[in-house]
Amino acid sequence: MDDWEFRRLHRLMVLARRIDEDAIALQRQGVLPAYAPAKGQEAAQVGSAAALDPARDFAFPTYRELGVAVAMGVDLVGYLSTHLNIWHGGMYDSQASRLAPFNAVVGGPVTHAVGWAMGAKLDETGGAAITYFGDGASSQGDIHEAMNFAGVYRLPVVFFCQNNGWAISLPAARQVAGGSVAARASGYGIEGVRVDGNDVEAVFEATRAALDRARDGGGATVIEAMTYRLGPHSTSDDPGRYRSLEDEQAWTGRDPITRAARRLPEADLAEAEQYAAEVVERVREGLQALTPRPAEELFSFVYREPTAALLAQQRAWKESLDA
Ligand SMILES: Cc1ncc(C[n+]2csc(CCOP(=O)(O)OP(=O)(O)O)c2C)c(N)n1
Ligand SMILES: [Mg+2]
User: Considering only CA atoms, which of 60, 156, 161, 143 is closest in space to residue 117?
Assistant: First the structure.
């Protein structure tokens, strides 16, 4: 990776970190009802998303993918509006930005990505899907069906697992027997690799290789990025109740941003911070200026053709307003 590209990835990680910190502050100030911090996972998120080709690929995130949104250049006010809970799945344009609405169903985005990859294969678009999921999600049945389907049909999809050590309070060791999510790939006839998820360059290279193979008809890959969630599971969680300070401190010493910063001159670090501070300010103002959407839209965009049950709910809702 050349210096220019490395600097770009570092700058995106710093931006993700600062926006993440501000989102937590906004939650504490009562602006955001809840938030799922991404601190510590910036290299895994930025490194993987930066390897995508925005002209043909598509990403399917979980609820913790701020770094992916940052690296893909998604409108961050629209992205964070999901945490503001004012509209279905965020107010950014998913089609244009190539990032699906974020998904709070554990394992949910994985089946969507495989379906999208089936479409890309049938239409011969040359695009590949990437889907994000956690160590906890890796024990969900949907993941296994999705990987098997991708293996059987040789689909262009990258299963990107961020193994951050925890599924809320459950350690990965207690639900991944054998210890490796990547190792499961061989049972589905697909590639599996494990990378240091706090090394942004290693993540970028592994993802680029997997995307290239997917586009060349080589099928799917499981990438298991070994990382750590430095903060709480969500703003309602207290990790002090289930993990040790020593563990947190050990991983703080492996902070992906500090690590990348060692390769860069002071001037670049200062410039990255200044840029991040400007964007944080803009995003904060944008979020605070958002007003609620019409309540009627609760019923829009759920199905292409609304079901009878949905229409009945809509009628009941309207009647309750008149009552
Ligand atoms: C289908 C489903 N089951 C359970 C939950 C509740 N839940 C939310 S996050 C989470 C843990 C997920 O852990 P992991 O996949 O490791 O992702 P991480 O939160 O660590 O990023 C659980 C059980 C959910 N949202 N969806
Ligand atoms: Mg996890």
Answer: 156
